[in-house]
């Protein structure tokens, strides 16, 4: 029997009248990967913030290594051997790898930082956990996956006994995922306990030993991973089974109007002579590996980035789109893959975030009609079943899935005919995914034309009427959904140009 590292019992937490955690239990054993699952807004992050001292619990008990604890800040939990690797890494790209690992704890010699010893210590640390990274290289030159390895090494250097990984594979390639899992297994063998927060069911089944599920701030249950099916986990998470069968044939009406045509679009090496059409009521899936140029095409069409040459036609008319304002005038809306950087105003309200693209319709005589703005924000967020205490709630307080719905509401108010959804379900849970899928299908049936960029082949096959595949900035193929498979999509996605 493994030693119990952590025991949380009957944890309650309230925020301004919202009961965020309602008697939650959680246990972690040494050398265990324990998955923490639940829809966005289920309380997973809040529970971890209570554990690490960011939030003070209202009720309940936390026992760490057999002793009751009550951390009042993050430093106290770090000193106790707890480290959290966040989904969005908070590191200093201008510093070296070694400097990032030992910042604030640098080895000293004669009153000065001993850079040579710091690099040597980092190299020894990497060798211990099986990572191949040059400690003297600048952190900003590394991939997201390698930067994550640096964060894990930093945690190990602090003698962490518990590691919390929040959506660690969201931006990783498959090869980087495999490398992460290898490191995690090595850490397991050393007795380190890991709490693994993720929505990726296949990964959960591969890497975890046990799964604890939360729903609406409550503890649902804990199960052994090898004794439960994916459908049973989903049912625990949302109280219903969500089926993800692939689409077998296009649902676009025959003879549907072409609402967007792109001809010979070029931009350096990122977009190389890309042409395609998009029809009314169609979901056109853009597939390809990371760096294939899919997002670059979307940003060029939306006017967010310039392009060198090519033509764009909207409903048969050649248009000039130099800025996002131009795109919106031509009824094009864009849901960015990096919603926090390009889509969200986290410290503004739900109402302001919803209305920002349509402000001209609320202005009269130089004044904003606040009542009309809020009424429409309420209407569209109710249509999307956005979970928020009120329309005045700051966006930063909503879960990822609900933040995504607010951005979709933004473009629905604008009544755009062409919608570009770039990684629309990245970082959101299976229940919110299902709601986004239902919404996209409803929009297509209403005649909206949708480009959906996704790195998940299951999502591409489930949602698309047609699939466009890219590799190294080029369009390498186009498939009707009736002929699309994971195998032939991957063949096209890896079809590199011969020299």
Helix proportion range: 25-40%
- Helix/strand structural class: alpha/beta
Side by side, the strands of the main sheet go 6-9-10-3-11-12
Q: What share of residues are in beta strands?
A: 25-35%
Radius of gyration using CA atoms only: 24 Å
State the end-to-end distance: 58 Å
Could you please describe the fold and organization of this structure?
This protein has 499 residues and is α/β, with parallel strands linked by helices. The protein is built from 17 helices and 24 strands. The strands form 6 sheets. Strands 6-9-10-3-11-12 form a 6-stranded mixed beta sheet, sandwiched between helices. A hairpin with a 2-residue loop joins strand 4 and strand 5. Helix 13 crosses helix 14.
Short descriptors:
alpha/beta, Rossmann fold, 499 residues, single chain, 6-stranded mixed sheet, globular, 24 strands, 2 domains, 17 helices
Summarize the structure.
This protein is an alpha/beta fold and 499 residues long.
Chain-wise SSE layout:
Layout: E1 4-15, E2 18-29, E3 33-37, H1 44-52, E4 59-64, E5 67-68, H2 74-79, E6 82-85, H3 97-102, E7 108-109, E8 112-113, H4 115-129, H5 144-157, E9 162-166, H6 174-189, E10 193-197, H7 201-207, E11 210-215, E12 218-224, H8 230-238, E13 258-267, E14 271-279, E15 283-287, H9 294-302, E16 309-314, E17 317-319, H10 324-329, E18 332-335, H11 339-343, H12 350-355, E19 363-364, E20 367-368, H13 370-383, H14 400-414, E21 418-422, H15 430-445, E22 449-453, H16 457-463, E23 466-471, E24 474-480, H17 486-493
Parallel strand pairs: 3-10, 3-11, 6-9, 9-10, 15-22, 15-23, 18-21, 21-22
Antiparallel strand pairs: 1-2, 1-4, 4-5, 7-8, 11-12, 13-14, 13-16, 16-17, 19-20, 23-24
Helix pairs in contact: 13-14
């Amino acid at each position: 029997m493994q030693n119990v590292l952590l025991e949380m019992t009957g944890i309650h937490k309230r925020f301004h009248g919202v009961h965020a955690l309602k008697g939650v239990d959680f246990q972690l054993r040494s050398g265990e990967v324990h998955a923490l699952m639940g829809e966005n807004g289920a309380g997973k992050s809040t529970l971890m913030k209570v554990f690490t001292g960011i939030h003070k619990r209202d009720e309940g008990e936390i026992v760490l290594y057999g002793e009751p604890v009550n951390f009042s800040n993050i430093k106290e939990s770090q000193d106790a051997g707890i480290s959290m690797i966040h989904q969005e890494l908070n590191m200093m790209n201008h510093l070296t790898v070694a400097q990032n690992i030992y910042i604030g704890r640098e080895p000293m010699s004669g009153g000065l930082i001993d850079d040579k010893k710091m690099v040597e210590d980092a190299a020894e640390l990497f060798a211990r956990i099986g990572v191949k990274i040059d400690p003297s290289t600048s952190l900003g030159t590394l991939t997201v996956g390698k930067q994550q390895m640096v964060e894990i090494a930093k945690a190990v250097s602090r003698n962490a006994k518990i590691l919390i990984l929040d959506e660690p594979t969201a931006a990783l390639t498959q090869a980087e995922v495999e490398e992460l899992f290898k490191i995690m297994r090595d850490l397991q063998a050393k007795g380190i306990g890991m709490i693994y927060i993720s929505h990726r069911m296949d990964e959960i089944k591969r890497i975890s030993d046990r799964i604890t599920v939360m729903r609406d701030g409550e503890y649902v249950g804990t199960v052994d991973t090898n004794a439960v099916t994916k459908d049973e986990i989903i049912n625990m998470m949302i109280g219903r089974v969500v089926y993800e069968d692939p689409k077998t044939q296009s649902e676009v009406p025959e003879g549907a109007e072409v609402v967007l045509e792109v001809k010979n679009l070029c931009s350096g090496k990122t977009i190389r002579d890309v042409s395609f059409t998009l029809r009314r009521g169609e979901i056109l899936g853009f597939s390809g590996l990371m760096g294939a140029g899919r997002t670059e095409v979307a940003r060029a069409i939306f006017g967010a980035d310039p392009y060198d040459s090519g033509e764009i036609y909207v409903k048969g008319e050649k248009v000039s789109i130099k800025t996002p304002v131009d795109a919106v005038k031509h009824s094009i809306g864009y849901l960015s893959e990096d919603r926090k950087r390009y889509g969200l105003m986290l410290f503004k309200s739900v109402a302001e975030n919803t209305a920002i693209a349509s402000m001209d319709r609320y202005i009269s005589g130089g004044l904003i009609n606040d009542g009309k703005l809020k009424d429409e924000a309420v209407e569209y967020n109710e249509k999307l079943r956005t979970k928020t205490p009120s329309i005045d709630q700051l966006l930063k307080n909503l879960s990822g899935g609900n933040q995504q719905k607010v951005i979709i509401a933004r473009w629905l108010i604008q009544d755009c005919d062409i919608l570009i959804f770039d990684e629309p379900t990245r970082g959101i849970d299976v229940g919110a995914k299902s709601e986004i899928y239902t919404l996209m299908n409803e929009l297509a049936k209403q005649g909206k034309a949708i480009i959906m960029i996704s790195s998940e082949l299951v999502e591409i096959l489930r949602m698309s009427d047609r699939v466009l595949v890219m590799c190294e900035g080029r369009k390498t193929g186009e498939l009707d959904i009736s002929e699309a498979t994971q195998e032939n999509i991957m063949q096209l996605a890896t079809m590199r140009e011969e020299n």
